[in-house]
Amino acid sequence: MRNPFNGGGSTVSNPFETFKYLRINELTFRQIGNIGATWSALNSDQQQVSVNVTGGFDRAQITGDVFSPSFLQYESPVATDGQSGRTVRTEGNIFNYNLQFAGTWAYQPSSSMSFTTNAGFDFETQYTRVVRTRARGLLPGVETTNSGTILEASDNVLGDFRDDAFFATEQVQALDQKLTLIAGVRADRSSANGGRTKRNLYPRVSGSYRFTDLGTALNEVKLRGGWARTGNRPRYGDRDVVLNAGNTIGGNPSLVQAGVAGNATITPETLQELEAGTDITFLNRRVQFEGTWYSRRITDLLLQPATVPSGGIGAVVINGGELRNRGIEAALNAVALQSRDMDLNVRATFTKNKQDIRNLPASVPRFPVLGSFGAAFGRNFISPGGRTTWIWGNVPLDASGNPLPIGTTVTANCTAGAPGCIIARIADTVAGDYNPDFVMGFSSSFRFKRLTLAMTLDWQKGGQVADMTRTLWDEGGTSRDYDDPITSESMGPGWTLVNIPANYTTGAGDVLPYTTGSYRYNAWSNGSDVRAYLESASNLTVRDISISYEAPERWLSYFRARSMRFTLQGRNLFKLTDYWSFDPQFNNFGATNLNRFIDLAPFPSNRQFYLSVDVGW
User: Fold this and answer.
1) Under a CB-based contact definition with an 8 Å cutoff, are residues 601 and 479 in contact?
2) pLDDT, average across residues 490-499
3) Does a structural domain hold residue 494?
4) Whole-number average pLDDT of the chain
5) Which domain holds residue 18?
6) Which of 80, 265, 403, 490 could bridge across to 516 with cysteines, CB 3.0–4.6 Å?
């Protein structure tokens, strides 16, 4: 069966055929280990001195294969690139290890006061190497990359960090442990910094005071606050001015400037945070409230502003500018039921924040963040006074500079800027915001004798996502609501439903009636109105459900075990959302700090199920 829509042939796909025959296999082999040793050098009534050494490693080998057979519609009879059938092989190696030496001196001059001093040195290394190889033009039925007509080393990711630090912390507890004061400092250095031998100092101070024994309804109140400075090291290669291989001349590769110029003097970003909060305990300690306000100020941002294209360099790496992040966090814990045979514990959390760019260096104008699909689908800008979560993209404006309703590119029936046209211009401006209004989490556990049921839910309210997946389905005329009639419910808020033409003419000259899908796609108008595919990311996710059983004593005796637990767990089970595509929390560019709102043809999120048996001897 071939998909005849939108021209048919190898320019489109049959999604049912693709889902059945496109294969992806992944294998991960991971080893994790740790070791520690402690020497108690002094142990008296008032003083204790100990020395400890800890270390650990985390090693992973990852392999992945993607195979697209030559008989799939978009590959047959000839793919658009002229090579039918393709395969991708991924090999990844990750090796991280750390080692720490620390000493602790605890001194208690009296029962109401204590001092704890901790100091030491730690070292860690992180190594990542990923190689992806792609082959095109495969022989029928052959899946290996070395059998392709064209072999490409399509991607090579390398990261190699070596960090170490001296640290010291002093903690003072007084007034019968009601007052706690903590001060500390770290002296870090990293191979990613421009100055690899220079140490950056990061101090911190915090304090808290507890008001205890206040009664049965209100048991205890703790006030706390703190200030700290820390750093965010540069990315791997930010300090290096590297060359790329250019064209081959006389059988030898030439050298050319890399697209992004490194900076040999690059330094870490510096984060300063001030926070204050309270912890309140109620009802005989069965209910606890936690509330925190924080303000973060990040300076010496690691930026990659674009340069003049004629210079041969696309962007440069610099330090500069300031970002501010402010927010609140709250949590409520309750022991709703507690008896010999039954326990019920519930927890709810709430977070809300916003961040903006306070300033940039005078020599750096506002610039779009790298890693996006441009103004047609939206991207973030680094702009003084603007939020980093704003989605900038093309929007039709009237003569006063106000955004017109979505769909005006169709209903206006004129060219932007033409005399008498309601669309004065198409402007690259703020079209949305992917930052949610708030995020809440809910978790609970219920125990009945030896059986325990636990659940975790996540709720995100607000925020927007660029649903490029829907664009692709509309382009092929195969989205599930493509042929639905145009209504306010099918289009959503912000759309105009006035003066919609009855028909439109395709590029092939066919005259077709306007439907929900065609109106949406033509309103996008090849990227002239990014809002056509910006959707709400509100969702409720069942993140985790588990049921476990504690083995009775007779089972332990039979296996001569100290403990035994059986657990059945399911993760990422389902979502409740109005979002059209698969997952509003998916991001096409992975775990990036910016441009985290782009959904482009992902595979649905994995549902994972685990059966585990934990035995202790």
Assistant:
1) no
2) 94
3) yes
4) 90
5) 1-177
6) 490
